[in-house]
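The records we work with from here on pair a chain with its fold. Taken together, the tokens spell out the fold as the letters spell out the chain. To see the layout at work, look at the sequence and tokens printed below.
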Amino acid sequence: MNWLSLALGLLPGIIHGIETVVGDKAKGATKKQMAKDALAVATGTAASVLTGDDATMADAASQVTGLLID
């Protein structure tokens, strides 16, 4: 799996998760920040267990996903 497909795979899950948790209770900017925070937690968790090329791929996927969230 390459970093781009990993990034594109992360995005729907993050967005769906935020929508499920907060629904219409939060504004767009708040949801965007929540999505970025969720991505940061996922990236931190991945960084703690991955090494070498896998860690590099996860970091690249996280950066691309963060840009897509913006």
User: Anything to note?
Assistant: The chain has three helices and no strands. The two ends are 24 Å apart (CA to CA). The chain has a mean pLDDT of 83.
